[in-house]
Amino acid sequence: MPEGRLKEDYISQKIWALISVIIVSEPDFETIRKTMSARIINTVAGCVIGLVFIYAFGATQWSMLSGVALAVFISTSFKNYPASWKLAPVTVVIVMIKSVVDNAVLKDAESLAVERTLEVLYGSFVAFILGWIASMFIKQQIVSSFLFDGKSAEENKEHE
To answer: Mean pLDDT across the chain, nearest whole number?
Structure first.
């Protein structure tokens, strides 16, 4: 866990799991799978780019700006890039900003990157499970309404 001021800010990192649950949650299970995949890919890409720029150029404003520019370039280079492409450059900033502002050591930047990525993975997994449960519930409702024309089993027996 990071030390000093970074340690205090670690508590606020827990919010990323909740944000991931909110962002990934959808009423359609197939959409959840796509959103979850895009969120994970963009988060990991942003963390990697941020750490590479800290390693290569140090924790400076220019290295952070360069990392963001590279993340935007890479994220938008794909033919059908997802709407969540913005997560990669935002993640670069999240990974690098504390190190830039606090002149933190590389070890703390690494910890923040790993913790943020794990929080996103955890939140995405929770949303995935909740979506799966909801989709099973919705399928059950659809099957029930199809079989019973929207009526309960007792109502259908009364009409026979």
So the answer is: 76
3-state secondary structure 99-122: HHHHCCCHHHHHHHHHHHHHHHHH
Tokens at residue 86, please? 């913005």
Residue 79 in tokens: 């033919």
Whole-angstrom distance, CA of residue 109 vs CA of residue 60 = 12
Instruction: Kindly state the average pLDDT of the residues 96-100.
Output: 81
Band of residue 70 on the pLDDT scale cut at 50, 70, 90? very high
pTM: 0.66
Residue 42: inside a domain, yes or no?
A: yes
In a domain, 11, yes or no: yes
Rounded-to-integer distance, Cα 41 and Cα 34, Å: 11
Let me know if residue 91 belongs to a domain. yes
Number of domains in the chain: 1
